[in-house]
């Protein structure tokens, strides 16, 4: 291999970003929407012949020009990205890859967590990462006749979320509530967790869990080698359910509750796949119609819009007292300012 140069590519470098887009397109990859670091490898003529990116603690959008494959360039890209991640303090790393590339990354020290044949493989750089996580959950297992689960982002926690939790808690002896811990939402994880726990403190059969790195949100699931948006949704749902089935087995979960969202195509497809696939793993899927306010389904999007517009009267109608009290406190000011500065608060 020649002594090629790897360097960070800044968003302002239009030529380099154009070359990276061209390389990714040629290799059948779309640039992912969620990237916080990108590098490029230049040849002697200043053409980019390999690239890779990061987002959070994941490696993404890695490609080598077909004219230079077999030269070990991907090894150099991965090594560079790992150095960048370690310099950030991220030592537990993850990547998503095509099934036919999994063995290659296995040789670079990554281990398979889950796979959807013909679509995607989810990998990490710790041999016992996922198995260790499952062992930790197994130690928290409690025997009960009816054990259910909810996975909730709660951006922020609304009366709709509270209704869903109350229903699941009432219909089961034990409820495991997983709060999505990725900080990809307008309301930070620490705040979302606080509001969920305060808004459900009256329910005594709940066990709270941070989702950790194994339950992946819609916001950060990679799309760069999926052919279209439907394929992204389907592969995310399948991967999520594959992982969740193992989490459910560790905790003795036999039911999963989800909220219906009739206006969301993404959630509709996701819920349909969940309804089809969870029973195959002995898990009942219960889709709960949304709680309404004045004839309209309560959604976190509507709550964020009320905060953006400082419509306190509307906010009070949509959230529990605990959530409303928080947003009227000085502590919430930075969160409200973040929401108000965002152009689009309707989507995830």
User: In angstroms, what is the radius of gyration?
Assistant: 22 Å
Query: What gap, in angstroms, lies between the N and C termini?
Result: 44 Å
Helix content bin: 25-40%
Low-confidence stretches: none
Kindly report the oligomeric state of this protein: single chain
Query: Looking at the structure, what is the overall shape?
Result: globular
Largest sheet entry: 7 strands, mixed
Structure classification: alpha/beta
**Strand order, largest beta sheet:** 1-2-3-4-5-7-6
Order of helices and strands: EHEEEHEHEEHEHEHEHEHEEEHHHH
Helix-strand blueprint:
Layout: E1 5-8, H1 14-26, E2 37-42, E3 48-55, E4 58-64, H2 73-87, E5 94-97, H3 102-107, E6 111-116, E7 120-124, H4 129-139, E8 147-152, H5 159-170, E9 174-179, H6 189-199, E10 206-210, H7 229-251, E11 255-259, H8 265-277, E12 284-288, E13 292-293, E14 296-297, H9 300-308, H10 312-318, H11 321-327, H12 333-341
Parallel strand pairs: 4-5, 8-9, 8-11, 9-10, 11-12
Antiparallel strand pairs: 1-2, 2-3, 3-4, 5-7, 6-7, 13-14
């Amino acid at each position: 291999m020649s002594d090629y140069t790897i360097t960070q590519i800044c968003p302002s470098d239009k030529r380099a970003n154009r070359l990276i887009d061209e390389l990714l397109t040629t290799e059948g990859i779309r640039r992912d929407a969620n990237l916080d670091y990108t590098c490029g490898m230049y040849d002697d003529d200043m053409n980019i012949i390999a690239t890779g990116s990061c987002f959070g603690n994941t490696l993404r959008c890695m490609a080598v020009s077909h004219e230079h494959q077999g030269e070990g360039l991907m090894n150099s890209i991965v090594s560079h990205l790992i150095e960048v991640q370690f310099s950030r303090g991220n030592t537990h790393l993850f990547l998503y890859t095509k099934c036919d590339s999994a063995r290659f990354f296995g040789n670079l020290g990554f281990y398979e967590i889950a796979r959807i044949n013909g679509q995607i493989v989810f990998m990490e750089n710790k041999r016992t990462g996922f198995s260790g996580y499952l062992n930790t959950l197994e130690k928290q297992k409690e025997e009960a006749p009816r054990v259910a689960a909810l996975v909730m982002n709660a951006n922020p926690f609304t009366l709709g979320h509270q209704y869903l939790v109350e229903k699941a808690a009432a219909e089961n002896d034990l409820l495991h509530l997983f709060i999505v811990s990725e900080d990809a939402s307008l309301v930070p994880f620490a705040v979302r967790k606080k509001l969920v726990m305060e808004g459900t403190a009256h329910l005594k059969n709940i066990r709270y869990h941070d989702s950790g790195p194994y339950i992946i949100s819609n916001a950060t699931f990679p799309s760069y080698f999926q052919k279209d948006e439907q394929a992204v949704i389907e592969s995310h749902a399948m991967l999520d359910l594959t992982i969740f089935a193992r989490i459910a087995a560790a905790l003795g979960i036999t039911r999963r509750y989800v909220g219906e969202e009739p206006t969301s195509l993404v959630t509709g497809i996701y819920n349909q796949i969940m309804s089809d696939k969870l029973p195959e793993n002995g898990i009942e899927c219960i889709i709960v119609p949304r709680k309404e306010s004045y004839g309209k389904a309560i959604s976190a999007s509507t709550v964020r819009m009320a905060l953006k517009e400082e419509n306190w009267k509307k906010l009070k109608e949509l959230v529990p007292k605990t959530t409303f009290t928080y947003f009227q406190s000085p502590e919430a000011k930075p969160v409200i300012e973040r929401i108000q500065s965002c152009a689009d608060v309707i989507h995830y």
